[in-house]
Amino acid sequence: MLSRLRVSARIVIPLRFARTKPAVDLYRDPHSNPDSTKSLSLADIKESYDRIKDGIIRTDCKRSDYFSRIAGCEVYYKKESKQRTGSFKERGARNALLCLSVEDREKGVVVGSHGNYARAMAYHGNMLKVPITCVLPRYVTLRAISRCKEFGANVIVKRTGSFKERGARNALLCLSVEDREKGVVVGSHGNYARAMAYHGNMLKVPITCVLPRYVTLRAISRCKEFGANVIVKGKNVAEARKYAFDLAQEKGSHFIDGHDHIDVIAGAGTIALEIFEQLKEVDTILVPVGGGALLAGITTAVKEISPNTRIVGIETKASQCFTKALEKGKPVLVKSRTSLASSLAFPRAGYNSFNIVKDKVDIVSVKEHYIALAQLRMLEQHKIAVEGGGAVGFAALLSDQVKAKPGAKVVTILSGGNVDCTVLGHSIEKGLLADDRLVLVDVFMPDQAGAVCELLDITAKTGANVKDISMDHIFHHFGVFTIKLTYIAETRGREHSLELQRILSQRYQDDLVFYMKETKRAV
Prior knowledge:
- The structure is a single chain.
- By secondary structure, the chain is an alpha/beta fold.
- It contains 20 helices and 24 strands.
- The strands form 5 sheets. Strands 6, 9, 10, 12, 14, 15 and 16 form a 7-stranded parallel sheet that branches. A 6-stranded mixed sheet has the order 2-3-20-17-18-19, sandwiched between helices. A 5-stranded mixed sheet has the order 1-24-21-23-22.
- Strand 17 (284-288), helix 13 (293-305) and strand 18 (310-316) form a beta-alpha-beta unit.
- Helix 1 (42-52) packs across helix 7, helix 3 packs across helix 5 (116-125) and helix 3 packs across helix 11.
- The chain is globular and about 80 Å long.
- The two termini are 34 Å apart.
- The relative contact order is 0.15.
């Protein structure tokens, strides 16, 4: 007998969620060396902030009435999505470019990325007059390519196989005049590439962005808009970064790792300075975690400014490189799956980043449907489109994985807003499913006139809206003259879905299979 209510993943949203092969270290970056990790201090971060502040946006830190209500504390979000290239990556990109010598700037910069970092480098490379080349993997979208090209970057696509602004700008500003002229190469999958392209353009540093092939066309175009040279290379970000590193060695340019270069980390840490200027006292900070640069920068600043403030790194269960690093006591290569939070998908925690934070933070991993639900809530409650990587802090609150006392101040970093429209559509559908506002129904009925109309009429009378419908006369085992009708319905929420299930089960009894996503969540 068919059960009347099943928890199932039958509703398939195309998220390209395939598991990847185990990653390998494809190159050895002297600036991210496990045998010689680098340290960072609050003084370094303050110096970086003085260096980059004229080229980045001091973003708002706003209170969320909705999340404050459901979490039972005071929840704020730092809107790094308001940076010019859409993420915090600009901070590190600009800082790294400004740290280049004049000679190194002339040589240009090559980056391997699949989105935010490439855009950040393209933008700031354009501003700083540093030639930028973005190498993108072959899965990136045309939009990702065009975004890099818009900023004047050279884009290379090889068919063979954000907060970011702060770090990008800081890294560029740390370059000597000689190093700036040589240019910079970066490997990224989005926000960091954009940040480097933008600030490279501002600082007149040539930028090359290497992006993996799965990034969107918009991500590529944004890097090009800022004058960066964009290369699409590799089936994942690890291959893109390896190509970027090799290209930098070949050209005599600088390779700036957007996830572990110490100047990028310092630039990202400037977010913490702004938070404490805006809120004075903070009990907990929720930080999205990919390679770890943002977490390391914020941890360094916070633990000197306010030692009792708790820092929680939030990663996706699809890519748990920091969780595995803490378990093993060192960064290790991990398997990962594609995710709504693609900007957090890295095969290994950064060596410098891990060394900085290993005894100072907690790590929480969130599931995909909570990320989608968080994106949906931000759209509906705050009218903000946030990328999956930027929504993980809210996802941790929705899943009740982070708790705080009543009245405590909790800040989550909205690290980026660079979300592709098609991906956002999938996120909304996945969020509706997690919110019990999408259900899938199978009904086995006789193949006779009026049977389908009766089912749809019953559904309509409950107030549910049919979104998709299909009929199968062949691939089932319930008789030659039986139809299997499958439809997806949109409801007002869990109670409405259960009402629909109850009414349909009264009519169709054992001939009904009703699918809902059972999600424990705050409402």
